[in-house]
Amino acid sequence: xxxxxxxxFDARVGETPDQVAFIAAIPVFNDWAAARLLLSKLDTALRxxxxxxxxxxxxxxxxxxAELDFRELNLEAVCSIEVLLLRRNLGHQRAIAIGLTYxxxxxxxxxxxxxxxxxxxxxxxVPSLYRKFQEELGQKVIFAKRSKRSESLGFRVFYQxxxxxxxxxxxxxxxVGNFSIAPAIAVDxxxxxxxxxxxxxxxxxxxxxxxxxxxxxxxxRLDGESRMNFVALVIxxxxxxxxxxxxxNWKRYYASLLRPYIHGRVLEVGAGIGGTTPYLWNRxxxxxxxxxxxxxxxxxxxxxxxxxxxxxGIETSVGTTADIPNSEKYDCIxxxxxxxxLEQDRAELDKxxxxxxxGGRIIVLSPAHQWLFSPFDAALGHVRRYTRKTLRTGASTxxxxxxxxxxxxxxx
Length: 412
What we know:
The chain is an alpha/beta fold. It has helices at residues 32-48, 92-106, 126-135, 153-170, 184-190, 200-206, 230-243, 248-258, 277-280, 295-305, 345-353, 375-380, 388-392, 397-402, and strands spanning 6-12, 22-28, 53-59, 78-86, 112-114, 141-148, 176-182, 211-217, 264-269, 285-292, 314-318, 330-336, 356-367, 407-409. Helix 4 (153-170) runs parallel beside helix 7. The longest helix is centred in the middle third of the chain and has 18 residues, at 153-170. The radius of gyration is 25 Å and the shape is elongated.
């Protein structure tokens, strides 16, 4: 992973001791008051445990000027502080990715502690993380597992829904966040894992890096109001789910419903990175065209399909249905989680109907029920949700005939 250009500020608060236990990478966006309180609490906790740490604060393009003079805090266990100034706001997960990469570049031998600056990751739990790290002989990432959360009842309810949805889509449980300590050997692998750019904890799972957990209680913010609301949680969850793009359980389920209707010449519109194609392809398909307008996604799609040599007859093409010659005919045209993103959905279906061979069909998989439309949909880029009736309303007779096997699903 390439680290973007950054500026540096080294605010030494004392002489660096010969033996530093670990480096702390802490992303900050405007939370400077909380960060100062966090450093004091971290120093107290580490002094009691006879541990020393070097701190890197990753300033994620803060609009509030950083308070860079930390000497007045009289820190002892925190032996040095460096502020990494990112030239623009990249978001929490990308700031973590940059912080890990930068810290690992500075020293390739020390483990790296990842924690938030707001204090919800309790500094008092850091010695316990480090003890567990030692018990595992420095070979595993140690995550703090939340045994209790401190948010409102409403947020906790939404969080449980999110956890259930995440489990259904990916086959994995949501048990941990960013709060962790990672050995140098794991960080050396992580910094070249592209998924780290999207979600740190999910990247550890994806890369099959060994990890263990300890139970902790999520603490309250040291200053200001939490920015983690339902929309932020959704976006955070989407980043994690994107790492597990296969969403194994969910895709196996709907593929079992759709595959009997997919055969002959197939056109998959908006194929993305090819995350669903291996689940839907079958040997009754003589030809399969993956149509994707985004060239960057198409390159990933080709790379993904290269790992499935058993899938014969696959072609990839950049473009939309507007680029297909009218002479082309397909036995099946697929819109898998695509139609709900299009402003002109009816025009798209009318265009697609021109390419359906005699006896062929259009298959649509999309989220159901407009009354369920929420910030979750907006975060996904959905324009609408459907019912069987609204999907057909305004569509031509030809399109309605071809939509005989449309599958509408509640989940977005």
